[in-house]
Backbone:
């Protein structure tokens, strides 16, 4: 990818809070990561977050209920082998993020760092939220990467984003007790009406800001959707001591 293309994408991220980098990962990389993710999912290798753990709309009532073993996320992707490590610290990702941060990018292994799955039937709906809601850093200029390992649309649980929401100062009252952006408030509805869901092909990457409001529907297709998600911050930023953000080692991208 040319320097001018990266610069244009960085400018788009700054302006609207997200940008899609088409065919950012090669077909061979995507195929290898998808195969590895499927193997990990079939083996149910821990650590795992189950849909029943979070109780989002559409999730099974408990792990003992029908569909209770439905996986939501394969956690700690960076520790699941060299393929995942190579992607998370790849030169292409490092170059792109260095252009955004104007600093050395650092991978957080405490947040995201997972294979995100969306299953038919028991894959839950995710309400509008900002990722920064439970994160604790000295600054809030963090960026996540969302790599599509298959085709993603609104119908199979693809992400919706609200453009320019990352630059808005919302009040605490616009969120519920779990820090989800309230769809029932008249003042929030004009924002939600602006939402877009980019269609993603395998290898496309969404770079999105930690303050950008995003959400996802349930998966109405017949296939499990797989995505690989990581979060990065500039080296000049630090996770706050004693918080979850500082609970796992970070990885600078040299």
Residues:
């Amino acid at each position: 990818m040319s320097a001018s293309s990266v610069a244009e994408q960085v400018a788009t991220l700054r302006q609207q809070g997200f940008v899609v980098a088409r065919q950012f990962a090669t077909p061979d990389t995507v195929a290898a990561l998808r195969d590895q993710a499927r193997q990990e999912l079939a083996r149910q290798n821990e650590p795992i977050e189950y849909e029943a753990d979070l109780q989002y709309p559409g999730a099974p009532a408990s792990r003992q209920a029908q569909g209770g073993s439905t996986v939501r996320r394969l956690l700690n992707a960076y520790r699941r082998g060299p393929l995942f490590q190579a992607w998370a610290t790849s030169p292409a990702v490092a170059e792109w993020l260095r252009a955004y941060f104007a600093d050395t990018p650092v991978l957080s292994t405490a947040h995201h760092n997972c294979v995100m799955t969306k299953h038919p039937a028991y894959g839950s709906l995710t309400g509008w939220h900002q990722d920064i809601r439970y994160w604790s850093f000295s600054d809030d200029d963090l960026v996540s990467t969302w790599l599509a390992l298959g085709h993603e649309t609104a119908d199979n649980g693809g992400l919706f984003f609200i453009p320019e929401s990352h630059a808005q100062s919302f009040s605490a009252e616009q969120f519920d007790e779990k820090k989800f952006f309230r769809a029932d408030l008249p003042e929030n509805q004009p924002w939600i009406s602006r939402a877009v869901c980019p269609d993603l092909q395998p290898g496309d990457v969404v770079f999105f800001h930690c303050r950008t409001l995003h959400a996802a529907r349930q998966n109405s297709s017949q296939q499990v959707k797989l995505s690989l998600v990581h979060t990065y911050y500039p080296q000049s930023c630090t996770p706050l001591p004693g918080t979850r953000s500082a609970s796992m080692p970070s990885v600078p991208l040299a």
